[in-house]
Amino acid sequence: MPNPKPPYPAEFRTEAVRLARQPGHTIRGVARDLGVSNETLRLWVRQAAVDAGQATGLTSDERAELVHLRRRVRTLETEREILKKAAADPTGRCNTMRCGGTSIGRWTDGAAGQAWTVA
Questions:
Q1: Residue 86: pLDDT band with limits 50, 70, 90
Q2: Which residues constitute the domain of residue 49?
Q3: Number of H helices, E strands in the chain
Q4: Does the residue 31 lie in any domain?
Q5: Which of 108, 109, 111, 107 is nearest to 98 (CA)?
Q6: Which of 22, 47, 93, 116 is 20 to 30 A removed from 1 (C-alpha atoms)?
Q7: ∠ CA 51-73-100 to the nearest 5 degrees?
Q8: Inside any domain, residue 114
């Protein structure tokens, strides 16, 4: 389900974090003034600390790469399942030269034409 609110621009988040870090300002007060939730601003401040090396965790770049790689794995797994289903004949038996990683037979040219020979 798509997010009903578009993400805040990076410049806005950077400025909000800068304001929240200033002495005399609280996350709650800055969040109220900017019209964002306390938790959203708290997470921005925490992520900025991680990106700056002041806290442990995944940096923004690492997090983006992780999201990309997980999406790629999901796509590859889906493609693999589609190919596995396409490799099975209507009876559910494999119709490829290799099933499950082991050779189960081979095509041979005989007097009666091509035939599948079980190994």
A1: confident
A2: 1-56
A3: 4, 4
A4: yes
A5: 107
A6: 47
A7: 150
A8: no
